[in-house]
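Entry 12.
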Amino acid sequence: MKKRLINVVTLGCSKNLVDSEHLMAQLRNNNFDIIYDSNSTDAKIVIINTCGFIGDAKEESINTILGFVQAKEAGQIDHLFVMGCLAERYKKDLEQEIPEVDQYFGVNDLSKIIERVGGCYRDELTGERMLTTPKHYAYLKISEGCNWGCGYCAIPLIRGRHVSVPMEQLIAEAEGLARQGVKELIVIAQDTTYYGMDLYGERKLGELLHKLCRIDGIEWIRLHYAYPTHFPEQVIEAMRDEPKICKYLDIPFQHISDSQLKSMRRGLNKSETYALIEKLRREIPDIALRTTLLTGYPGETEADFEELLQFVRDIRFERLGVFPYSEEEGTYSATQLHDDVPEEVKQQRVERIMELQNEISLENNQKRIGRIERVILDRREGEYWIGRSQYDSPEVDTEIFIDFADTLSAFNCSTTGCKTTEEEAIDTTETPTDIAHTANTQNSNAQSSKNAKSALHLQPDQLTPGTFLHVRITEAEDYDLYAVPVSMDKQPERCN
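Predicted 3D structure (tokens):
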């Protein structure tokens, strides 16, 4: 039977990406050939997975739909289907405004979509993925929806209440990803720290992380979207004790002013926020914190904003993003509050925070000069390999540029008779603090030894995305870093 070609276009966040990957796995097993995120009209069937979270994302989704509508009207494609958050929230409006779309589907209509294009949903394929990320890393979505009801957020209106994926299903999915060559798992959800409450009556993220660490082939586990209120102690312990868990945490604080936090319905106050950060940095030395901030929320005064600026100065986040408030219909802030901060003031506040953060980021990066860090290679561009440390998530954080000639030189040395002892290999750990406070020091050292020794036997032409290297940071910018591979012919210097 001749296979039919389908183009799946994904917009929005990594959680949408996972949904599309599950969809494509089902379609692939229904005798479809799949292309993704293509603007071409080679596929006569197009499925767009939309985002409907904020204004800019909605606009991108609408424009993408209209672009393929034009292709359909020109006879370049035969069928156009729309799914995801925008379709979930505005289905009736979209059906009236853009009737050229064959059918709209919500966020939980996977089986309906497959049936509509002539396939059959297969329960036994639950957890199967067709990866669209580079094959060495993948996202693991552990739950859907959210129970918090933050004042500005439409996610509960779109995705519903929190629903955890059973732990055994997640472990099976992660094992399958490892078999596909995935080395880095990025754990995501609307709220990762709430995981397990609905299924097990208690927060189970810590236990899940420990089990993920036992999977052969997975070397890094990274945690995103950790809601700060009632942050689980077990997660702190797991991040502290498990060598595979990156010393990295995406934890959106949004604001620091007590009045703003209360109005945003965040569930914690200023003093609790500072206390949590202090505990994280005490218990997990060398942790890199990424946060998201929101400016211009209704009622934000200049005094509130100055508190927020001081918060950024105090904490010196390793990674930070900031967004101007955008009113979302149906949310608490839209129905109960007045959007009283002028748009130009919102934008000015965004720019002031980012100007400060750029200074902090540069200073933080400069402190890394001379450090030896373990990186994973993501891709090659021209004469550079581009990689990331454990402190950096793909696509959003700092990248490390490694001169390709230096890489060849280092590996030519390591494969042509240079002497390296096992003890020296063990000593190429990321930083002393990465292992100094872990209960599993021996395991960590053994893993580092294994990784280092395997690197020693690589030929230059064997360097591929997903390869781990030890590099010395040589230059720093506010965003990017530059490095050279550590020559394995001598004991590398240790960072302090």
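Annotation: Residues 413-457, 487-496 have pLDDT under 50 and may be disordered. The chain has three domains: 4-125, 137-366, 372-485.
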